[in-house]
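Re-run with default settings, no changes from the original entry. Doing this only to confirm the output is reproducible before filing.
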Amino acid sequence: MWFLPALITLVAWGAADLFYKKGNNERDRYSALKTVMMVGLVMGLHAIIYYGLIEKIDYDFKNLLVYLPVSSMYILSMAVGYVGLRYIELSVSSPISNSSGAVVVLLSFFIMKENMAPLQWVAVGMIVLGLFFLSFFEKQQANAELKQSGAVIEKKYRIGAVAIIFPLLYCVIDGLGTFFDGIYLDYRQILPEDQANMSYELTFFIVAMLVYLYLTFVKKEKIQIFKERDKGMAAIFETLGQFFYVYAMSGNAIVAAPLISSYSVVSIIFARIFLKEKLSAKQYTAVFFVLIAIAILGFYDG
């Protein structure tokens, strides 16, 4: 029964990426913060309703502080990712962000002294080259558009290669979070999974409330939660994918891991269909090699 949960996770996280992109309004300077608020709200409700009321987990609130180093990395990486989606195509951003597995592999090898197979080194090399060429091609595309006409170019193209910094930052910070997670849940076994996951979701909920207070009382923004449909859908799909991810990995991790880690493919397909994003053949080739590397690392990680 692992395939259906893995498939749901794959589609859910791919759909979340699509709605993250749609929900990031370039004309709204607080769009990324509003996305953080919506995701934190949904995750908090999930923690309260599912873990608290349905599963009735005996939660120790001191774990909010115990797990904070991990939670902060995850939340910060997601916030950076939300900002970055305003400046770069989802088709490029998603594969780069999901390359955080390479960061985890390298940290595990050099710090935890774990062994790494030759094929894993090949995958890490493919990701590094893929990121380099994606950045190079992004700059090429920006220069070409500037030369073709004097028309006003979208901000994400004017920024050019600088735009790639956002998914790269996400990649590194999320990789650190995953590495810390391994220490907490595996190497040192500091917390059980349910306590750790509930700590993460409740921390995200607290951050969401702080963002709401900041926007409402400091920036005097009128927050209309039920009108933030795209952000709300992204938050729901993010939480839905996280929920089914646990079942998929516990059922058949060695096969489910590479399948789920390739949800960028769904993101690219959705972006092409619904957002009408267009990439050059060179960019698609670079994305393709990054996806292959993600799948290889996901296979070994399983």
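The mean pLDDT is 81. Residues 26 and 175 are 27 Å apart (CA to CA).
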